[in-house]
């Protein structure tokens, strides 16, 4: 069954043409899919349609069977820049969604100790044990990105949206984090939509890769990846 469902979706920002052109596709719950293509091909626009930050100008976008009609609250997000709050420690950055998102926010005071336990568990799985009380500027770029992935997952979202999350990292760190992400996904099986311009990254991480064309907004290929993984 389909978790993210696009039916003949188009989006035009202005009269210069469509940024997304007649896309129909379906992503099952627990799948890991990647969208790959050159800059300007419509990857971010696709992402914003999935998360309800843009409404389609044509067609329909459904998530979990419901037409998306505004910013989606069931997803976690991470971007190229980690965007950690500089005045908060690693731990407090990771806790942030629990202070904001229902149903956690109303319980935050009473359950803080438990939530801190979740954050510590998650930070340990990404290799950040011992850095809980450091501030973002005390962490390397890779560590900041690990923390931002923890923040995206702390409220157990069913959908994880990743927009070039490793784009700013060196090749070693990047491939290390691919493994971290893949391990988290294998353990928890949230649905992942990754957009990237890195075909290797897409093929390493995702089980299904959609290739978008340079001419904006079109999918030119859908490929199932069946790689032996370390
Ligand atoms: P990508 O993320 O793959 O780089 P985008 O989704 O950002 O691609 O952009 C797809 C197309 O839509 C591009 O031609 C871009 O110039 C155009 N575009 C993106 N955002 C806007 C906007 N806010 N207003 C007008 N055009 C936009
Ligand atoms: P329990 O009822 O035993 O807490 P859960 O399925 O809620 O069972 O959680 C199992 C474990 O997963 C908990 O011990 C907790 O550490 C962790 N956990 C639960 N919810 C979250 C969450 N939203 N974010 C991170 N970790 C969580």
UniProtKB/TrEMBL annotation:
<dbReference type="InterPro" id="IPR003439">
    <property type="entry name" value="ABC_transporter-like_ATP-bd"/>
</dbReference>
<keyword id="KW-0813">Transport</keyword>
<dbReference type="Pfam" id="PF00005">
    <property type="entry name" value="ABC_tran"/>
</dbReference>
<dbReference type="GO" id="GO:0005524">
    <property type="term" value="F:ATP binding"/>
</dbReference>
<protein>
    <submittedName>
        <fullName>ABC transporter ATP-binding protein</fullName>
    </submittedName>
</protein>
<dbReference type="InterPro" id="IPR003593">
    <property type="entry name" value="AAA+_ATPase"/>
</dbReference>
<dbReference type="GO" id="GO:0016887">
    <property type="term" value="F:ATP hydrolysis activity"/>
</dbReference>
<keyword id="KW-0067">ATP-binding</keyword>
<feature type="domain" description="ABC transporter">
    <location>
        <begin position="4"/>
        <end position="230"/>
    </location>
</feature>
<dbReference type="InterPro" id="IPR017871">
    <property type="entry name" value="ABC_transporter-like_CS"/>
</dbReference>
<keyword id="KW-0547">Nucleotide-binding</keyword>
<comment type="similarity">
    <text>Belongs to the ABC transporter superfamily.</text>
</comment>
<dbReference type="InterPro" id="IPR050166">
    <property type="entry name" value="ABC_transporter_ATP-bind"/>
</dbReference>
<dbReference type="InterPro" id="IPR027417">
    <property type="entry name" value="P-loop_NTPase"/>
</dbReference>
